[in-house]
Amino acid sequence: MKKLLTTLLFGSFFSACAERQPVPAIPSDPEIEGKIEKLLKGMTLEEKIGQMCELTIGAVTDKNDNKLSEALLDTVIGKYRVGSLLNIPFGVSQKKEVFAEVITQIQKKSLEEIGIPCIYGLDQIHGASYTQDATYFPQGINMAAAFNRELTRYCAEITAYETRACCVPWTFAPVMDLGRDPRWPRMWESFGEDAYVNAQMAVQAVRGLQGDNLNKVDEYHISSCIKHFMGYGVPVSGKDRTPSSITDIDLREKHFAPFKAAIRAGALSLMVNSANNNGVAFHANKELLTGWLKEDLNWDGMIVTDWNDIDNLYFRDHIASSKKDAIRLAVNAGIDMAMIPSEEQQFCIDLKELVEEGAVSMKRIDDAVRRVLRLKFRLGLFENPYWDIRKYDKFGSREFAEVALQAARESEVLLKNEGELLPLRKGTKILLAGPNANAMRCLNGGWSYSWQGELADEFAQAYNTIYEALCNKFGTENIIYEPGVTYVADPNDNWWKENRPEIGKAVTAAGRADVIIACIGENTYCETPGNLNDLNLSSNQKE
């Protein structure tokens, strides 16, 4: 009996060990691993640290001429060997040709100075949404409402195709935080509150973006960057980048579940939650970043910070004694690439000193750089750091637009239809009211042409507002447009500001109408600028 018990315990021990080392989602490629090791052996410490840096494109841009600055490129790439850049050139949506021109120049400089290509990333959140003339899809919350797995994958494939058409191989998507607090200003980016729905949608998005050959991602696919690991969507305050209070069980069983599913589906990179949970900052949490992700899932992908979040360990969270100490905490926790986004000099100096002082090991540096280089090899950037974008002849095509239309239709949710009011009959007199009735901005949301989406009316003039669509459908003579409430055109983009209401005009016009369509709600926002104090409509709109 004692012998049997020993055997059972011995078997259980090895079973537990086997659970902690599952088969990796992406089989190791000996050819790629050999190239990485050869490259690592020839790299200086400065070159390795440079590969761990990601800067915004503004760090190498001449602000006066809207072009890349050779002097800044010499500093960023030539001196500090920076390996990654992100964001829209010149701060606003560009045509794919502009992206290609800018990125080709960056890649030529990277190869000349370092011999290693740059990896360029964009927030292409709902389609190639930073690119002019591209196909825009419904936001994540809409895609979850449709819950069409095949369609989600197809939309992601189109996003990858049109992002590659910009010479960009990497997007910071999908957003897969559980949106469980409607005050959270990124609710609409997520796939909603349910862990299962998030996992299902995220897996399809990852597969659509990356394709099937994860060690050799082809010319029509890109790397995903699943985000934001994890618990970002349930801040106690409801405000962006603020602490959560999630139990260990909920963290493991609910918030971690979509990320685990996406990694097992082959996600190549991951971005970390900007905040902290129960007082522990995610960017300094070795148990989660190294333990749960890299070790427990046997995952060889790359972890990148969110915007300037290493500094936040010092300035906001006060868990580091200095910015340098914050770098120590983050890198030792498992961060592979730091989105700085513009202070490359201090980051590189500080991290080098930390290595020389023994506070960060060369083993940890090499592990981080392996992961960065592995991603670049998998994306084929060493063979093709830039490419001819003319072959992407389906970019912005009618075929792709039909897919976006299908997604929009499937995501609609009809709450009630009393008296069979819908569909509206021809000849119906319609009063159209509300601040969102004749604006493109509110139809697209954030991450549309710009971060806050405030430029949609400028860039989307070829498309119809609700007012224009109703005029086309029912005839201008049947549409009475009296908004009653309108937004202030604020140069500082205080999106919530409204002009003095003219409710009386709308009330008077209602006497001439058969039905009223009230387009009420919010203007667009994204991240911290969208922090809400309450969930009420504005007093003007409620009136």
UniProtKB/TrEMBL annotation:
GO molecular function per UniProt: beta-glucosidase activity
Key words of the record: Glycosidase, Hydrolase, Signal
Catalytic EC class: hydrolase
An example Gene Ontology biological process: glucan catabolic process
UniProt catalytic activity: Hydrolysis of terminal, non-reducing beta-D-glucosyl residues with release of beta-D-glucose
InterPro entries named in the record: Cellulose_Degrad_GH3, GH, Glyco_hydro_3_C, Glyco_hydro_3_C_sf, Glyco_hydro_3_N, Glyco_hydro_3_N_sf
Annotated signal peptide: 1-18
The Glycoside hydrolase family 3 N-terminal domain, residue ranges: 44-375
EC annotation from Swiss-Prot or TrEMBL: 3.2.1.21
Domain Glycoside hydrolase family 3 C-terminal: 413-542
Residue stretches spanning the membrane: none
Homology family: Belongs to the glycosyl hydrolase 3 family.
Name this polypeptide is given: beta-glucosidase
Organism whose genome encodes this protein: Bacteroides caccae
